[in-house]
Amino acid sequence: MTEKEMLVDYLLRLGDNSLILGQRLAEWCGHAPILEEDLAITNIGLDLLGQSRLLLTYAGEVEGKGRDEDKLAFHRDTMAWRNFLLLEQPNGDFAKTMARQMYFDAFQYLQYEALSKSSDPQLAGIATKSIKEITYHRRHSSNWVIRLGDGTLESHDKMQTALNELWGFVHEMFDMDDVDNAMLAKGIGVDVAALRPAWDQYIEEVLAEATLSRPYVTWSVRGSREGKHSEHLGYILAEMQFLQRAYPDAKW
Fold it and tell me: How many DSSP H helices and E strands does the chain contain?
């Protein structure tokens, strides 16, 4: 990859994470357990969509091939996506959604805090704008994990089960590859591996307050950076991209 191609790939990773998770959260609209949460989770999804729009627009500008945010969102096939495998996993019950959300929110908060100091002024600006939203996202998901974990026996068990089921997906967030290392060397990107201790500390503090246990599972999965995804991403894209695929460049 050239330096420009690496920057595009790096921006796509960030933008794809926000877009796919935002799409997943949109599935809760009208289905959340209470009206207030229906509004809250939908607004979080909109925040993520806004982040993605900025990042995909910037990626298209850097690439210089005429692909804007819509082209990148609606006309890429599964293997061209770079989002974490964690984020494409089905919502499951509300506990599982909150477990997934807390794992990512805690990571994204640390990542974007570091990106706000990026040598790339446009990326730093996007991160600085986004960190205000992410701060709320992290507080929201953590509070729900505590509320469910330290609630009834049933809510406690469901929350623990959700944490255990998703733990094998979190390790991928802290992997570094050639693109990450190149962006780090340029002062553009973040050493995500170095974020793991702070992430672990935050998660353990939340779990302790929630009377939950840190999961200990022996499996882990990776592959999103190479375009390897679970079957779930294909279903997300089939729904998200249908209109643009059926009616290319339609205006309404």
Answer: 11, 0
Nearest to 232 by CA among 95, 84, 101: 84
Per-residue 3-state assignment (H helix, E strand, C coil) for 74-85: HCCCHHHCCCCH
Find the helix or strand (DSSP H, E) in which 110 lies: helix 94-115
Strand segments, DSSP code E, in 80-208 are none
Which amino acid is residue 182, in one-letter code? A
Its pTM stands at 0.96
Q: Across 11-158, where does the E strand assignment appear?
A: none
pLDDT digits (tens, 9 = 90+) for 227-238: 999 999 999 999
Residue corresponding to tokens 């002024």: 121
| CA–CA dist 169, 215 (Å, integer) | 12
**Among the listed residues 85, 84, 130, 88, the one whose alpha carbon sits nearest the alpha carbon of residue 109:** 130
- CA angle, 54 as apex, 48 and 59 as ends, to 5°? 120
> Of 23-27, 170-174, 237-241, 248-252, where does mean pLDDT reach its minimum?
248-252
Cβ atoms of residues 110 and 120 within 8 Å:
no
Walk me through the domains of the chain, giving residue ranges and CATH numbers.
Answer: 3-215+223-246 (1.20.1260.10)
Among candidates 91, 73, 70, 95, which has minimal Cα distance to 82?
Answer: 73
Which single residue is written with the structure tokens 């995909």? 56
Q: What is the pLDDT of residues 192-218, one digit of tens each?
A: 999 999 999 999 999 999 999 999 989
